[in-house]
Amino acid sequence: MANHIVLYQPEIPANTGNIGRTCAGTGTTLHLIRPLGFSTDDKMLKRAGLDYWHHMDIRYYDSAEEFFEKTEGVYYLLTKFGERFHTEMDFSDTDRNHYFVFGRETTGLPDWIMERYADNALRIPMNDKIRSLNLSNTAAILIYEALRQQGNQGLH
Ligand SMILES: C[S@@+](CC[C@H](N)C(=O)[O-])C[C@H]1O[C@@H](n2cnc3c(N)ncnc32)[C@H](O)[C@@H]1O
């Protein structure tokens, strides 16, 4: 089983490119839920992830409903409204698929997803001087926390 990053309607190509690069370097599958705010041929996306794009296991969905229908595992929502810190959740079971679901840069995750998976809503600590952390930074933090708990799985 594996770790998965799920981006709900990402808008900024450089964020997705950065996340793709981290996914390629850690064996993490990237799931993109449309509509995307860019073309995957976009120059900025290529600049951020160019040499790595072909190493990525990347899957596309036309809607969040389609994504949930076609995947199976444990879903975690990443949101500043989460009641638990991401470090309080146990990701150590490598027999499961762990799906880390991130919201859109401008509007986050829709209410129905927030309600359905409220028990697994996780927050990365921050103070009140900013509205939120950068999407690609949050994805990197989560991937490496999961890998740390899983013993890094052959990464060196
Ligand atoms: C730029 S933020 C979205 C901000 C949006 N206005 C909102 O209120 O959710 C993009 C995504 O990054 C993730 N994120 C940003 N800050 C976070 C935090 N402190 N804890 C967990 N996830 C965070 C969430 O998945 C969020 O949907």
UniProtKB/TrEMBL annotation:
S-adenosyl-L-methionine binds at L78, G103, I124, S132. InterPro entries: Alpha/beta_knot_MTases, SpoU_MeTrfase, TrmL, tRNA_m1G_MTases_N. It holds the Pfam family SpoU_methylase. One of its GO terms (cellular component) is cytoplasm. GO terms for biological process: wobble position ribose methylation. Residues 4-144 form the tRNA/rRNA methyltransferase SpoU type domain. It is found in: Cytoplasm. This is Putative tRNA (cytidine(34)-2'-O)-methyltransferase. It comes from Salinicoccus halodurans.
